[in-house]
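Minimal example, chain plus zinc ion.
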Amino acid sequence: MRKIKIPVELLKSFIDPGDCWFDHDGDCQGHGFSLRVDELCPQQQAKQILAKYYEKEAKKMTKPLSEMSMTEAVEKAFELLVYAEYVDKSTEKPEYLKYSWYSKFDGTFEEFLENHELKTTHIEDYGDDEPSTFDSQTAWEHFHYGTKEGNHDGWTAKVEKSYGGEGQGDQYWMVVSVSDGTTTRYFRRDGWYASYDGGYLDGDTYEVRPAERLVTVYE
Ligand SMILES: [Zn+2]
Protein backbone atom coordinates (compact mmCIF):
# COMPACT_ATOMS: atom_id res chain seq x y z
CA MET A 1 0.00 0.00 0.00
CA ARG A 2 1.38 3.43 -0.86
CA LYS A 3 1.55 5.83 2.04
CA ILE A 4 1.06 9.53 2.51
CA LYS A 5 1.26 11.84 5.51
CA ILE A 6 -2.01 12.81 7.15
CA PRO A 7 -2.29 15.37 9.96
CA VAL A 8 -3.60 13.76 13.17
CA GLU A 9 -6.40 16.32 13.37
CA LEU A 10 -7.57 15.47 9.87
CA LEU A 11 -7.58 11.75 10.54
CA LYS A 12 -9.46 12.30 13.80
CA SER A 13 -12.13 14.28 11.99
CA PHE A 14 -12.85 11.32 9.70
CA ILE A 15 -13.22 8.81 12.50
CA ASP A 16 -16.68 7.65 13.40
CA PRO A 17 -17.03 7.15 17.16
CA GLY A 18 -19.51 4.31 16.64
CA ASP A 19 -18.46 0.67 16.85
CA CYS A 20 -18.18 -1.65 13.92
CA TRP A 21 -20.89 -4.26 13.64
CA PHE A 22 -20.66 -7.10 11.22
CA ASP A 23 -23.38 -8.94 9.33
CA HIS A 24 -23.21 -12.65 8.46
CA ASP A 25 -21.09 -11.84 5.38
CA GLY A 26 -18.49 -10.16 7.57
CA ASP A 27 -19.27 -6.72 6.17
CA CYS A 28 -19.28 -3.74 8.56
CA GLN A 29 -22.84 -2.49 8.72
CA GLY A 30 -21.83 0.06 11.34
CA HIS A 31 -19.83 1.99 8.76
CA GLY A 32 -21.15 0.60 5.49
CA PHE A 33 -18.07 -1.20 4.20
CA SER A 34 -18.06 -4.51 2.39
CA LEU A 35 -14.96 -6.37 3.40
CA ARG A 36 -12.92 -9.31 2.28
CA VAL A 37 -12.32 -12.04 4.86
CA ASP A 38 -8.81 -10.80 5.67
CA GLU A 39 -9.75 -7.13 5.66
CA LEU A 40 -10.36 -4.79 8.60
CA CYS A 41 -13.01 -2.09 8.48
CA PRO A 42 -11.23 1.15 7.45
CA GLN A 43 -12.69 2.81 10.56
CA GLN A 44 -11.14 0.10 12.70
CA GLN A 45 -7.81 0.57 10.91
CA ALA A 46 -7.88 4.33 11.45
CA LYS A 47 -8.64 3.84 15.16
CA GLN A 48 -5.71 1.45 15.50
CA ILE A 49 -3.36 3.93 13.82
CA LEU A 50 -4.43 6.69 16.19
CA ALA A 51 -4.16 4.44 19.24
CA LYS A 52 -0.63 3.47 18.21
CA TYR A 53 0.28 7.12 17.73
CA TYR A 54 -1.00 8.18 21.17
CA GLU A 55 0.68 5.23 22.84
CA LYS A 56 3.97 6.20 21.26
CA GLU A 57 3.58 9.85 22.22
CA ALA A 58 2.78 8.93 25.82
CA LYS A 59 5.77 6.61 26.05
CA LYS A 60 8.09 9.23 24.62
CA MET A 61 7.02 11.79 27.19
CA THR A 62 7.57 9.60 30.25
CA LYS A 63 11.19 8.78 29.40
CA PRO A 64 13.76 10.29 31.76
CA LEU A 65 15.54 13.28 30.24
CA SER A 66 18.94 11.57 30.33
CA GLU A 67 17.63 8.86 27.99
CA MET A 68 15.99 11.20 25.52
CA SER A 69 17.45 11.92 22.12
CA MET A 70 18.29 15.54 21.40
CA THR A 71 15.13 15.93 19.34
CA GLU A 72 12.95 14.47 22.08
CA ALA A 73 14.51 16.70 24.73
CA VAL A 74 14.13 19.86 22.62
CA GLU A 75 10.58 18.84 21.83
CA LYS A 76 9.87 18.45 25.53
CA ALA A 77 11.38 21.88 26.22
CA PHE A 78 9.16 23.62 23.69
CA GLU A 79 6.14 21.66 24.82
CA LEU A 80 6.69 22.98 28.34
CA LEU A 81 6.99 26.52 27.03
CA VAL A 82 3.77 26.02 25.08
CA TYR A 83 2.25 24.69 28.31
CA ALA A 84 2.97 28.05 29.91
CA GLU A 85 1.14 29.70 27.00
CA TYR A 86 -1.72 27.27 27.55
CA VAL A 87 -1.99 28.10 31.26
CA ASP A 88 -1.89 31.79 30.40
CA LYS A 89 -4.55 31.50 27.71
CA SER A 90 -6.80 29.29 29.87
CA THR A 91 -6.82 31.74 32.74
CA GLU A 92 -9.63 34.24 32.92
CA LYS A 93 -7.96 37.65 32.78
CA PRO A 94 -9.08 40.62 34.81
CA GLU A 95 -10.75 43.20 32.58
CA TYR A 96 -7.82 45.63 32.57
CA LEU A 97 -5.45 42.98 31.27
CA LYS A 98 -7.60 41.94 28.35
CA TYR A 99 -6.70 42.92 24.84
CA SER A 100 -9.42 43.49 22.33
CA TRP A 101 -8.53 40.18 20.66
CA TYR A 102 -8.25 38.25 23.90
CA SER A 103 -10.26 35.09 24.09
CA LYS A 104 -9.95 32.48 26.80
CA PHE A 105 -9.06 28.98 25.65
CA ASP A 106 -11.41 26.27 26.91
CA GLY A 107 -9.99 22.84 26.37
CA THR A 108 -7.34 20.38 27.43
CA PHE A 109 -3.61 20.88 26.94
CA GLU A 110 -3.64 18.07 24.37
CA GLU A 111 -6.21 20.01 22.36
CA PHE A 112 -4.24 23.22 22.72
CA LEU A 113 -1.07 21.44 21.65
CA GLU A 114 -2.64 19.80 18.65
CA ASN A 115 -4.03 23.08 17.40
CA HIS A 116 -0.89 25.08 18.10
CA GLU A 117 0.62 26.84 15.10
CA LEU A 118 4.03 25.39 15.93
CA LYS A 119 3.04 21.79 16.00
CA THR A 120 2.00 19.98 12.91
CA THR A 121 1.40 16.46 14.07
CA HIS A 122 1.61 13.95 11.32
CA ILE A 123 1.07 10.29 11.22
CA GLU A 124 3.75 9.18 8.86
CA ASP A 125 3.71 5.85 7.16
CA TYR A 126 0.93 4.57 9.40
CA GLY A 127 2.65 5.56 12.59
CA ASP A 128 5.89 3.69 11.95
CA ASP A 129 8.07 6.79 11.73
CA GLU A 130 8.66 9.55 14.21
CA PRO A 131 6.05 12.27 13.99
CA SER A 132 7.27 15.71 12.98
CA THR A 133 8.69 17.63 15.90
CA PHE A 134 8.76 20.95 17.67
CA ASP A 135 12.48 21.24 17.01
CA SER A 136 11.90 23.48 14.01
CA GLN A 137 13.08 26.90 12.93
CA THR A 138 9.56 28.25 13.49
CA ALA A 139 9.51 27.08 17.11
CA TRP A 140 12.95 28.45 17.90
CA GLU A 141 12.06 31.81 16.39
CA HIS A 142 8.68 31.86 18.16
CA PHE A 143 10.34 31.61 21.57
CA HIS A 144 13.17 34.04 20.81
CA TYR A 145 10.79 36.76 21.94
CA GLY A 146 8.06 34.70 23.56
CA THR A 147 7.44 32.84 26.80
CA LYS A 148 10.63 32.38 28.81
CA GLU A 149 9.71 29.61 31.25
CA GLY A 150 7.33 26.69 31.51
CA ASN A 151 6.71 24.20 34.34
CA HIS A 152 4.62 21.08 34.38
CA ASP A 153 4.68 17.72 36.19
CA GLY A 154 8.05 18.42 37.83
CA TRP A 155 9.65 19.43 34.52
CA THR A 156 11.00 22.90 33.78
CA ALA A 157 11.97 24.50 30.50
CA LYS A 158 13.65 27.87 30.15
CA VAL A 159 14.83 30.11 27.40
CA GLU A 160 18.21 30.69 29.06
CA LYS A 161 19.41 33.26 26.59
CA SER A 162 18.06 34.71 23.41
CA TYR A 163 20.69 36.93 21.91
CA GLY A 164 20.41 39.29 19.00
CA GLY A 165 18.32 42.01 17.55
CA GLU A 166 18.52 45.70 16.91
CA GLY A 167 21.89 47.13 17.96
CA GLN A 168 23.46 43.75 18.74
CA GLY A 169 25.26 43.17 15.47
CA ASP A 170 24.68 40.27 13.16
CA GLN A 171 24.82 37.60 15.88
CA TYR A 172 21.57 35.88 16.63
CA TRP A 173 21.26 32.75 18.76
CA MET A 174 19.30 31.12 21.51
CA VAL A 175 19.83 28.56 24.27
CA VAL A 176 17.01 26.61 25.88
CA SER A 177 17.26 24.31 28.87
CA VAL A 178 15.06 21.50 30.03
CA SER A 179 15.10 19.75 33.39
CA ASP A 180 13.21 16.76 34.74
CA GLY A 181 14.26 17.63 38.30
CA THR A 182 17.29 15.32 38.12
CA THR A 183 19.04 16.17 34.88
CA THR A 184 19.29 19.50 33.09
CA ARG A 185 20.25 19.69 29.44
CA TYR A 186 20.98 22.73 27.26
CA PHE A 187 20.45 23.20 23.55
CA ARG A 188 21.51 25.94 21.22
CA ARG A 189 20.70 27.16 17.78
CA ASP A 190 22.54 29.86 15.84
CA GLY A 191 21.23 32.05 13.12
CA TRP A 192 21.76 35.53 11.83
CA TYR A 193 20.33 39.02 12.09
CA ALA A 194 20.08 41.81 9.57
CA SER A 195 18.46 45.10 10.46
CA TYR A 196 16.58 45.19 7.14
CA ASP A 197 15.31 41.65 7.51
CA GLY A 198 15.07 40.59 11.15
CA GLY A 199 16.39 37.51 12.92
CA TYR A 200 16.53 33.91 11.79
CA LEU A 201 17.45 30.75 13.67
CA ASP A 202 18.13 28.50 10.72
CA GLY A 203 21.20 26.65 12.02
CA ASP A 204 21.30 23.10 13.35
CA THR A 205 20.31 22.42 16.94
CA TYR A 206 23.19 21.21 19.13
CA GLU A 207 23.68 20.34 22.76
CA VAL A 208 25.78 22.67 24.90
CA ARG A 209 26.95 22.97 28.50
CA PRO A 210 27.02 26.14 30.52
CA ALA A 211 30.58 27.17 31.39
CA GLU A 212 31.74 30.05 33.50
CA ARG A 213 34.70 32.11 32.34
CA LEU A 214 36.93 34.24 34.43
CA VAL A 215 37.24 37.71 32.98
CA THR A 216 39.87 40.23 34.01
CA VAL A 217 38.82 43.83 34.03
CA TYR A 218 41.02 46.88 34.67
CA GLU A 219 39.49 49.70 36.62
ZN1 LIG B 1 -16.63 -0.47 10.86
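Residues 121-131 have pLDDT under 50 and may be disordered. Residues 72-208 form one domain.
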